Amino acid sequence: MIFTRWSAKFPGTQRRTAARSDRAATPSAPSGPTAHSAAPTDDPSGTVPAARAEGPGEDAPPPTAPPTVDALSVHDILGTIPALVAVVYGPEHRIAYVNSAYAGVFGPRPAGHTAREALPELGELGLLPLMDQVLRSGKPRTVKSRKVPAGAGGDRTRDGYYTFTCTPIEVAASGPAPDPEVACVAPHKGVLVFGAEVTDQIESAERLRASEARQRAAAVTLQRSLLPQELEQPDDLRVAATYQPGGTDAAVGGDWYDVITLGAGRTALVIGDVMGRGVRAAAVMGQLRTAVRAYARLDLPPHEVLQLLDGLAAEIDASQIATCVYAVHDPNEGRLVYASAGHLPMLVRDADGTVRRAAEPTGPPLGTGGWLHTSGSVPLGAGSSAVLYTDGLVERRDKDIDEGVAALERAFAGSTGTPDIVCDRLLRSLGITAAHDDDVAILVIQNPVRTGHDAELFHNAALELHGGTEAAPRARAFASGVLASWRFSPELHDLGVLAASELVANSLQHGTPPMRLRLRRTDRRLIIEVTDGDDHLPRRRRAEPVDETGRGISIVATIASSWGSRRTPGGGKAVWCEFALPRG
Fold it and tell me: What is residue 333's three-state secondary structure?
């Protein structure tokens, strides 16, 4: 763009307009292809016969030609543009022109003054350094969404936002100008500053972000409300879990975890991930978590729990695929028995620091159907730890997921401390921050080594029962001696002996060998359990006054804090009851 004179109109427009007026006042012969074809070659006068005229008459005025670009005043054009326009020239950016829109926002500006003096708003908006770059490089530059505070121009009631483009221009010499201060007697380089208002777009974007933030807050609140508010703490394990929603959008995922005490010292540990994001995934997650807790109360083997979940997931929403690991810890066995439905492998760290993956076979994700899940097991002795996690912890777009699991193994091998500390260290080691783009759930389990006074609070005692009439007296004598050695109160001693006697009598009457009586003491409860080879589970029923049997389980349920039964691997069953120990 070349300006040839600093004046009210841009250079050359007055002279070209006057020249066109002179040409219009002097009659001339038609020109152009149309005029040559319309004039007959055999008429010396060059006139057109009246018979060929198509107009209303010979006196009709010729049609008015539309104005050309040369006839337009650049000053007037820039003055009517609603955008902000300012023209400066020279290394000091002296003002040559500002349009009415610019003056309406920032007020009128005197021509000839430097931008630093007369256009302080450009400095506040950070445009002066940009204009220097444009002047040196000869290339346009743009800055987006610069804020103009409310009150600028005297009539603004809200903040404005503008996108400014600085374009290099060259101003040519054109002789003296009306104002000697802006006379241009030699070519100069300048900058055209063009500011387009984007206030509505910025406010719309802010409203959209605020709406997304509210939706995200609602989704995260829903997600967290569906997770356990406080983890159950088993007697024999130390557990901790953490959940971190991914990214800053509203689309939280369906990661979940849970810890469920099953009774008789056994604990179920669950972690899962519903594929997809948003409130729908969180809602499906909530339904699955509720179902897991219900199925856990049946005290089924892990693979049977996943089999039930598989059918339920397909009924809830066939389009939502979920992965899950369900594991059960039995302190008497010192193992984790688990089943996996398409989930990442659980990691176990032995007491010597060796970390290994639980490499038992795993089935497809929940909701796929047509698959019989199986259970595997992994040792979890004293001093061992395990971590269950979702894919957000180890999956990266630019890496294979096995690399992420290997990185987690290294981090887990060096993570010591309480389960809460281990959770935090794993998050930091894997680079999980608030900006991470996927949800992350971690569940850490530790089976601590107990020594000293703490070890005195945990005891086990077992007796093999071979049947016969002497089995019941031997069981009562064994229970009485063990409970006396554990220094229980007389009341708890008598209740424990009564419960052991009733459970043994029930097993002798309805069960089959082999039979075993086990007593276990923790820091919080006394557990009495009887196992036998028959897999028919007892149930509590109301015995009639004339019935001679059927009261054993009712007596146990009445005197104990809780009771239950389950089938054992390989056939058979276990019937147990618990007594809560007084605090302190």
Answer: coil
Q: Which residues pair with 184 in a beta bridge?
A: 175
Give the three-class secondary structure for 178.
Answer: coil
Question: Pairing mode, if any, of strands 94-98 and 238-244?
Answer: unpaired
Task: Take residue 218 and report the two structure tokens written for it.
Answer: 């609602």
Which position has the token pair 């902000």?
84
Cα(479)–Cα(473) distance, integer angstroms = 10
Q: What band does 470 get if pLDDT is binned at 50, 70 and 90?
A: confident
Vertex 98 angle, CA 96 and 99, to 5°? 140
Mean pLDDT of 327-355: 93
Q: Which residue from 574, 464, 565, 564 is spatially nearest to 517, judged by alpha carbons? A: 464
In the chain, the percentage of residues whose pLDDT exceeds 70 is 81
> How many degrees, rounded to 5, is the angle at CA 310 between CA 308 and CA 314?
120
Contacts of 350 (CB under 8 A, 6+ apart): 356, 379, 381, 383, 384
d(CA 275, CA 182): 69
Residue whose tokens read 């589970």: 537
Helical pair 490-510 and 552-559, crossing angle rounded to 10 deg: 150
CA angle 117, 121, 123 (to 5 degrees): 75
The Cα 561–Cα 486 span in angstroms is 19
Cα dist from 344 to 12, 141, 445, 578, whole Å: 77, 50, 16, 35
- How is residue 368 written in tokens? 């796929």
Quickly count helices (H) and strands (E) in the chain. 16, 21
Q: Give the residue with greater pLDDT, 83 vs 63.
A: 83
pLDDT tens column, 154-173: 456 678 899 999 999 886 65
Tell me, yes or no, if the pTM score tops 0.70. Answer: no
Q: For the residues 333-339, what does the mean pLDDT come to?
A: 92
Q: How far is CA 356 from the centre of its chain?
A: 29
Instruction: Give, in degrees to the nearest 5, the angle at Cα 139 between 135 and 143.
Output: 90
Task: Sort strands 160-171 and 2-3 into parallel, antiparallel or unpaired.
Answer: parallel
543 falls in which pLDDT band (50, 70, 90)?
Answer: low
Q: Which two tokens stand for residue 448?
A: 């601590």
Per-residue three-class SS string for 21-89: HHHHHCCCCCCHHHHHHHCCCCCCCCCCCHHHCCCCCCCCCCCCCCCCHHHCCHHHHHHHCCCEEEEEE
What average pLDDT does the segment 527-555 reach? 81
Residue 281's pLDDT band, with cuts at 50, 70 and 90, is: confident
For the four alpha carbons of 423, 428, 431 and 435, in that order, the dihedral sign comes to: positive
Tokens 């294979």: give the residue: 400
Cβ contacts of 46 within 8 Å, gap of 6 or more: 29, 39
